[in-house]
Amino acid sequence: MTRRRGAICKVTRSGLLFRKPWTRYLMYALTTIYVGTWLLYTIPSVANIRWRDQPWLVDVLMFVPGIALVVLPAVYCVYVAKVYLR
Please, what is the Cα angle at 75 between 10 and 56, to 5 degrees? Predict the structure, then answer.
């Protein structure tokens, strides 16, 4: 799976370099896969943790690193696909 994703990233990079219109859809697909994978791993792991002696704020703050490392770059990828490929 990692090699396929790497190959898709290289094709997307080449398309962005030459400003091909189909690159936008590859960028959207990569962003969806990136965020979806993070959600698939994060939500079940949080749901399986059985601590209820801590406040709910601790549970919410567990998502902050994921948001900073996954969602913000994904939003930037969508931004690049929309603005750079006009």
Answer: 125
Q: DSSP class of residue 70?
A: I
- Region 44-72: mean pLDDT is 72
pTM of the predicted protein model: 0.58
Q: What residue numbers bound the domain in which 65 lies? A: 2-83
pLDDT grade for 86, boundaries at 50, 70 and 90: low
Phi (first) and psi of residue 20, to 5 degrees: -85, 140
What six digits make up the tokens of 84?
């750079």
Helix (H, G, I), strand (E, B) or coil at 3: helix
Question: Packing angle between helix 23-48 and helix 72-83, nearest 10 degrees?
Answer: 170
| Stretch 11-22: mean pLDDT | 85
Total tally of structural domains belonging to the chain = 1
